[in-house]
Write a structure and sequence with these properties.
Layout: E1 2-6, H1 11-22, E2 27-31, E3 38-39, H2 44-48, E4 59-61, H3 63-70, E5 73-75, E6 78-84, E7 89-94, E8 100-104, E9 107-110, E10 114-116, E11 129-130, H4 135-147, E12 152-156, H5 160-171, E13 175-180, H6 191-203, E14 207-210, E15 214-218, E16 225-228, E17 233-234, E18 237-240, E19 244-246, E20 277-279, E21 286-287, E22 294-295, H7 300-314, E23 328-332, E24 335-341, H8 344-349, E25 354-362, E26 373-381, E27 387-394, H9 398-410, H10 415-418, H11 435-447, E28 453-454, H12 456-460, E29 468-471, E30 482-483, E31 502-505, H13 510-521, E32 527-530, H14 533-536
Parallel strand pairs: 1-2, 1-9, 2-5, 9-20, 11-18, 12-13, 12-18, 13-14, 28-32, 29-30, 29-31, 31-32
Antiparallel strand pairs: 3-4, 6-7, 7-8, 10-19, 15-16, 16-17, 21-22, 23-24, 24-27, 25-26, 26-27
């Protein structure tokens, strides 16, 4: 079988390597427009921040080493220009000398990836405007930080890559601002979690300006000012991270079906509408495991999984790829951020009846050195108890929480099945009741009506108006609020009517819950706990 793969990096090279292992007799050729066949795209921000010191560390395989390792032929700097499906031929042009060539195939794999969006705005051609997609982008940005030398930078776009670049520039001593036209950064996260992260970034010196549209750049030959819908911002360099577009324009006229966003449409076997042509990685859309809907998941992790599954299917296994969950994790200054499954917003849009809780739990035994907290937002379906997703922020191993959630979602678990999992515990690693299990218990308490709450979003939206704030932390910490110590509540509380609207607030939410439980026992009927307490919310009493 003669297999032609257009594109390398993650998906294309994975197809080639796995296919040659499955069936050594396959004749596999990779065409790639870049000079390198495989590089660590997710590691680029860390080269900028000098966490990764050497350029060579970003190159996973050279064309020569990959060929020797796998037996696949690799042709670099070859750009595919058209596909003749009837003749089973790909037309390509050499970027070295412009020469046109044709390559025949029995099976074709499209792994052409995606390219950064370059907005048509004034000043985009100025010097010191950077993108973050290839090793050359990272090399150029790191060199510029040293050579300018850069004191101020603006990152346009608040997704994972944009925020990772911001973190690494800040670590180099550059004063960084991030702008994003959306209401919040971190696409896929619910607003209160995104806002919590934005506030923590500000504490770390990275100023985030959501709801701010880029309008252009100004400067004399090099960028000096960023023009936005809010105000002008001085900058020595700008990093554009506003999104990517799939590299599929060359398919025009081929008859290969594409989605409205330009990605190639595929079935569960990663086949296009032509059974002899497959598409994988950032140029293709896949299926969301929970909703069954078509989604775009341009991630290195899913690209590798898709590549492996496609190779096995081409070799005869014919097993469907189940799709993605929207899993992601990101390291930021002083905290890590992760998510998987559906957010509350997405669950509502998908037709579920979502119920969520925001809780703050210890990430390991509180007495162990280095212990911190996780802020977790967990979502389930109110009618069925089906677990739907999690978002988590904290200085510790958020990936552990996310990966447990991925397992639960993959196995289609409901909350009752997640209650009593025998998860690993020792003080350096976890709490006796695992933080994931604690979040499950808290959400179940809320669904059962044992915990009655006001969410951070409801609080931000002004739903606390008319409610009396009661401070019930370990020690008084809300100026002007009445303080209650749960240990001292042994009956009616003087000055508080049993039907009065009472909002209970503590540092994290746990003592507020204990206070609510005690007050309910003594006949108080209208209390709510502020989810996340003062760890997530800023609570000030009006004069």
């Amino acid at each position: 079988m003669k297999v032609l793969i257009i594109g390398g990096v993650a998906a294309g090279t994975k197809v080639a390597a796995k296919l040659k292992r499955e069936d050594r007799s396959c004749e596999v050729t990779i065409l790639t427009s870049s000079k390198e066949i495989s590089y660590a795209g997710c590691g680029l921000p860390y080269y900028v921040g000098e966490v990764i010191q050497e350029k060579s560390a970003l190159i996973v395989n050279t064309p020569q080493s990959f060929s020797r390792l796998t037996g696949a032929e690799v042709l670099t700097e070859m750009e595919a220009t058209a596909i003749d499906r009837e003749a089973k031929v790909v037309k390509a042009r050499s970027l070295k000398d412009g020469q046109e060539q044709e390559f025949s195939y029995d099976k074709l794999v499209l792994a052409t990836g995606a390219s950064p969006i370059r907005p048509n705005l004034p000043g985009m051609d100025l010097e010191h405007v950077f993108y973050m997609r290839t090793p050359e982008d990272a090399y150029a940005l790191r060199d510029a930080v040293n050579e300018i030398p850069a004191k101020r930078a603006v990152v346009v776009g608040g997704g994972f890559i944009g925020l990772e670049v911001a973190e690494n520039l800040a670590a180099r001593g550059v004063r960084v601002s991030v702008i994003d036209m959306a209401e919040h950064t971190l696409p896929g996260f619910d607003p209160e979690i995104a806002e919590y992260v934005e506030n923590r970034l500000a504490d770390a010196g990275i100023m985030v300006f959501p709801g701010t549209k880029l309008e252009g750049l100004e400067g004399d030959g090099k960028v000096e000012k960023v023009l936005t819908s809010r105000r002008g911002m001085k900058a020595d360099l700008v990093v554009m991270s506003i999104g990517i577009r799939p590299n599929t324009a060359f398919l025009e006229g081929s008859g290969i079906e594409r989605n409205p966003n330009g990605t190639v449409a595929v079935n569960a076997q990663m086949q296009t509408n032509d059974e002899n042509i497959y598409a994988v990685g950032d140029c293709a859309s896949v299926t969301n495991r929970i909703t069954g809907k078509t989604v775009w998941s341009p991630m290195g992790s899913s690209a590798n999984i898709e590549g492996r599954r496609t190779a096995k299917n081409m070799a005869g296994e014919n097993r469907p790829y189940a799709g993605v969950l929207g899993t992601g994790v990101c390291k930021l200054p002083g905290m890590n951020v992760g998510r998987t499954g559906l957010s509350e917003t997405q669950a509502l849009e998908a037709g579920f009846h979502p119920v969520s809780v925001v809780c703050v739990v210890d990430d390991k035994a509180h007495y162990y050195p280095g212990a911190g907290s996780f802020v977790i937002k967990m979502t389930a379906d109110a009618e069925t108890g089906k677990f739907l997703g999690v978002q988590v922020v904290g200085p510790g191993a958020v990936d552990k929480i996310v990966d447990i959630a991925v397992t639960a979602l993959t196995l289609k678990a409901d909350l009752s099945q997640l209650e009593d999992m025998d998860l690993a515990y020792a003080p350096p690693f976890s709490t006796a009741i695992h933080p994931f299990s604690q979040a499950v218990n808290i959400l179940e308490n809320k669904m059962a009506g044992e915990l009655e709450t006001m969410s951070p979003k409801e609080y931000l939206d002004g739903k606390a108006e008319g409610w009396r704030v009661i401070d019930c932390g370990m020690t008084p910490s809300i100026e002007g609020a009445q303080y209650l110590d749960v240990a001292e509540i042994q009956g009616e509380v003087p000055g508080i009517a049993k039907d009065e609207k009472i909002l209970l607030v503590c540092a994290k939410g746990k003592r507020a819950y204990l206070t609510q439980n005690r007050l309910k026992y003594y006949g108080y009927t209208n209390t709510k706990v502020l989810e996340g307490g003062l760890s997530v919310n800023e609570v000030e009493l009006s004069e």
